[in-house]
Each structure stands twice: as C-alpha cells, then as structure tokens.
Amino acid sequence: MSINVEIAVEDLAGLEVAAHAGADRVELCVDLARGGLTPPAELVEACTSRAAALVAARDAKPHFDVHVLIRSRAEHGDFLDRPEEFAYGAEEIALMARQAGEAVTAGAAGVVFGALTEAGELDIAALETVRDGALTAGSSALRGVTLTVHRAVDALADRSQREQAVRTLLGLGTHRVLSSGGAPRALDGAEDLAAMVDAAEGLLDICAGGGVRPADLGDLVGRTGVADIHLSARRRPGAPVEAGAPETRTDPAIVAAAVDAAGEL
C-alpha cells in the first residue's frame, strides 16, 4: 500500500524541506497557528516555480506539487464544534473564489477549501462557487485541478454527517477530503475516518490530518485504511536548530521520519 505524505508549509524554505525529505506534496498556507489562511499569490507563484525546479533537478519526487489553502478568515485555532468558523458571507465567498482562481493561475496543482452553513451543514452553494473559480482558471491554463475539502468537515456534528458529507462531495467533483475524524487528533478520530473511507468507496481520497506524528502512522493507517496523511511537521518551540538549517518552522527530521514511516507501510 502506497501512503502519500502531505506537509503543511508556510514559506518557500518549508517547501524545500518537504521536497528534499521526500514528501509527495505540500499544502501552502500562512498563519498555521490559527489553522491556516490563503497565502498571497506571489508566494504561491514562487513556491510552484521552485517545486517545478526541484522536480526537474530530481531533488523532489516526480509528482511533487503544491496545493493551496483557500480560507479567508480564521478566528480561533480550535474549530471543532464551531461550524461558524467556516460560515461565510457572499463577499467572503466571492473573495475565496477569486483566490482559488489566482492560486491556480499562479501554478497551484490544487486548492484546499471548505464552507459550512451557520447550522453546521455543508454550504453547497459556497463550495460550488469556490470550486468553479479554481476550475475556470484551470480550464484557461489547459490543465486539471485537484479539489480538496479541508477540515471544515470536522466541525460537523457527528460521524453520520461526515459520512454523508463524503457522498455529497463526491457529487461535487471533489478529489480528496482532509479530516481528523472530528477529533483533536486523527488517531482519536480513527473510527470516523474509517467510516469516511468506506463511504468514499475508493472514488475519493480521505487524507488523515490533525495532530499526526510519524510514530502514529502505522496505527493510524491500519485502523482507518487511509492512503494519505497530512501533518505540519513544525519544529517544537525551543527545540535545537541544526547549524545551517533553513529558517523555517518545518522540521526536516519530522518530515523525514514521516516519509520513512509511510514507506514502511
């Protein structure tokens, strides 16, 4: 079984760390401390150009690419049981649709987005609007775009709603759903993640993310059946920094450990 490793990064140096350590892709964002926000188009362009150069130089996996988080607002780092964190007005939805298009135009292989209603249900109209912004830009560039719905699904009320969300997102053309199974840590949400994998019926990828550590991968994959894992691999505050290490919060040792653990599964 091949397990894909996605690293959330905030800067160009983080992307380089992830690529050199053997990650399969990165999710590019800013302000990870609050769950991440949309990065500026200039950063997206710099990162996609660098990713292409690393692939060409064989310093990254041949399929290594950049997926961009599209999220206009974050008020709390903890969004579990807070569907309002992902409820957006018309202006915010229009902004995210533009951001999605700009990210694809800047070279992103995919976008990562999500939206809920105040009542805690998928906001289908908002999802379609952001999706269409990305796909229109992809059509203009004559290439496909990978669509990922992020951990907004973890703010849904329960497992049955997450299962139904997977089925609904399949109908919207979504390729991947990022989730912790509604728990603070993906390992604690393993039963929900397994149910989401079953609901996807092999037609959509479930990516386990949220408090994932390299040491957890065997247990997490074994209990859920996911083929994708997501982690930020951020250096712990106060942790020693090796001489000559790049100035980024992405820790090369953690990324390498995750890639090695995935390769053993």
CATH topology: TIM Barrel
How many individual β-strands?
A: 8
Our estimate of the beta-strand percent is 5-15%
Could you state the CATH homologous superfamily?
Copper homeostasis (CutC) domain
Helix content class: 25-40%
| CA distance, first residue to last residue | 6 Å
Topology as H/E string? EHEHEHEHEHEHEHEH
Total domain count: 1
SSE-based structural type? alpha/beta
Instruction: Please tally the helical runs, counting DSSP H or I stretches of 4 or more residues.
Output: 8
Summarize the structure in words.
With 265 residues, the protein is of the alpha/beta class. It has one domain: Copper homeostasis (CutC) domain (TIM Barrel). 38% of the residues lie in helices and 14% in strands. The protein has eight helices and eight strands; from the N terminus they run βαβαβαβαβαβαβαβα. Strands 1-2-3-4-5-6-7-8 form an eight-stranded parallel barrel, surrounded by six helices. The protein is globular.
